[in-house]
Amino acid sequence: MTLKKSIEEKIFTITAEICPPKGTDTEAFLKKARLLKGKIAAGNVTDNQRAVMRLSSLACSALLLREGIDPVFQITCRDRNRLALQSDLLGAWILGVKNVLALTGDHVSFGDHREAKAVFDLDSVQLLQVISKLNSGENMKERPLRGGTAFFTGAVVAPEADPFEPEFIKFEKKVEAGARFFQTQAIYNMDKFRNFFEKTKKYNVKILGGILLLKSAKMAHFLNENVPGVNVPEGFVKELESAPDQLKKGIEIASRQLRELKTFCHGAHIMAIGQEEVVPDIIDMAR
Amino acid sequence: MITTKKKELKTILEYLEGKKNILLIGCGACAEQCMTGGNKELLEMAEILKKEGKNIVDSLLLEEACYSLLLKKELRQRKKEIENTDAVLILSCGVGVSCATEALPKVPSYPALDTLFLARVERHGHFTEGCSLCGECVLAFTGGICPITYCPKGILNGPCGGVVDGMCEADIETPCAWVAIYTRLKEIGRLEDLKRTAPPKDHSMKRKPGKVVVKRNDFKKIY
Ligand code: SF4
Ligand code: SF4
């Protein structure tokens, strides 16, 4: 079943992030992908995530298609100007990619090529508008295309952003620009997330709540100290610290969140950052 | 004001290697304020170069090193002194270098400074970036706070996902420009400016090389 079908048929929809390799050896990538096949509705292929250069998200999306996994092609505004964005989107479409997730992209200062020129010719809202244009058979200059696209378009939202109001205004702009589904940043406070979910109900979009696998207490500390927007609560950190097997505990925490999401949300988006092979465990444990 | 910083002496000496007679040009406007190309810095540079065995043919402090015509006039008056110049070292922003290059087409010109940004002068010797010269000012919709300059991504439709407690993902010590814009728009009762989707920036407005000729009557025509 495709992502679109799963969402439209109101099935609780699970997606998971799969990170491309730092080179052309795709064996491990494919191995992880195969483990997820049948367990998730779609696999998100990250696009030079955290500004670290990896195999292209477009190429890896095509690889997932070959494996029979519906890919979500993540595309950021950091590395491409408006010509490259449009031509890569057209390219993805002819290769058979049906879902696209439009992001602004992390700043280059995070990554492994800090001297790079950050492009940001468009922002995420404008990119969504461009995708809508391509879907209507025109380029962003409103010139007819010889064959357009029909992408199922998604975007990202930060449900626990502080201040929240500007984030929500941006969410509304993304909806207006054509986003049909949202994969949220990691949830740390389920009550806050529920409030956010309630607020989105009047819009005709589907929300997949973000679950970040905490692999260890060390990772939780690292995230809190180094990653913008991340605030792992004390409770989770303590649980991890006192567990004999921290990864197992992390899986348990994630599956608890997943189980809770199943009671009210449209779906979940699991981010296992390099530990994709445990995603099936998280899903099975939440049954 | 245009901010500049001094290049490493090593770099400058590399530029001037094998060149004996040096003409120095400074700028009495921005570079003087930045303490990188005023009278004091010209004297300092002359001293250093003399110690390195160079001969300073002349040292010119222009009112503004970017005033091309003025530079040409000054140089015409010193034709004799600068006759044997092997290299010109300019202590100003890059514009000064380009003026000198044009004024002395047969002599190589070298920058002594790195040109940084168009600045707000906070107080003496303290400068912050103020405008990125984008060619199409959007401040009317952003509460007077420039997202092109203050947001490291220069995005136009509100904060990215990287805001941390109101601070910027690219530099945790700096407030997020878009949170600042939001706060300001809210304060002045103009949140609708944030709700409107800003179109993609027209980068053709920032043509390179740019050219503007302001004729005396232009203002009358526009308004
Ligand atoms: S919007 Fe453009 S012109 Fe206006 S202050 Fe910012 S960079 Fe300068
Ligand atoms: S955190 Fe704010 S200022 Fe920093 S890149 Fe994102 S939107 Fe721009």
Bound molecules: iron/sulfur cluster
Q: Determine Rg of chain A (CA atoms, Å).
A: 18 Å
Please compute the radius of gyration of chain B using only Cα atoms. 22 Å
Give the number of domains of chain B: 2
Which percent range fits the helix content of chain A? 40-55%
Query: Tell me, what's the shape of chain B?
Result: elongated
Low-confidence stretches of chain B: none
Largest sheet of chain B: 4 strands, parallel
Class inferred from helices and paired strands of chain A = alpha/beta
- Total number of domains of chain A: 1
Which architecture of chain A per CATH? Alpha-Beta Barrel
Supply the number of helical segments of chain A.
11
Element-level helix/strand string of chain A: HEHEHEHEHEHEHEHHHEH
**Oligomer designation:** heterodimer
Unreliably modeled segments of chain A: none
Number of DSSP strands of chain B?
A: 7
Q: What's the average pLDDT of chain B?
A: 94
How would you describe what is shown here?
The complex is a heterodimer of chains A (287) and B (223). Chain A is α/β, with parallel strands linked by helices. Chain A has a single domain, classed as TIM Barrel (Alpha-Beta Barrel), CATH 3.20.20.220. Chain A is 41% helix and 16% strand. Chain A contains eleven helices and eight strands. Chain B is α/β, with parallel strands linked by helices and 223 residues long. Chain B folds into two domains: 2-117, 3-Layer(aba) Sandwich (Rossmann fold), CATH 3.40.50.2300; 136-197, no CATH class. Chain B is 30% helix and 20% strand. Chain B contains nine helices and seven strands. In chain B, a hairpin with a 2-residue loop joins strand 6 (113-123) and strand 7. In chain B, helix 4 (68-77) packs across helix 5. The longest helix of chain B is centred in the first third of the chain and has 13 residues, at 39-51. At the A-B interface, helix 5 and helix 6 of A face helix 7 of B.
Topology overview:
The complex is a heterodimer of chains A (287) and B (223).
Chain A: H1 3-8, E1 13-18, H2 27-36, E2 42-45, H3 57-66, E3 71-76, H4 82-95, E4 99-103, H5 124-135, E5 152-157, H6 165-177, E6 181-186, H7 190-200, E7 206-212, H8 217-226, H9 234-242, H10 246-262, E8 267-271, H11 279-285
Chain B: E1 2-6, H1 9-15, E2 21-27, H2 30-33, H3 39-51, E3 55-62, H4 68-77, E4 87-91, H5 94-103, E5 109-111, E6 113-123, E7 126-131, H6 147-150, H7 177-187, H8 192-195, H9 218-222
Parallel strand pairs in B: 2-3, 2-4, 4-5
Antiparallel strand pairs in B: 1-6, 6-7
Helix pairs in contact in B: 4-5
The complex binds iron/sulfur cluster (SF4) (2 copies).
One iron/sulfur cluster is lined by residues 131-134, 137-139, 146, 148-149 of chain B.
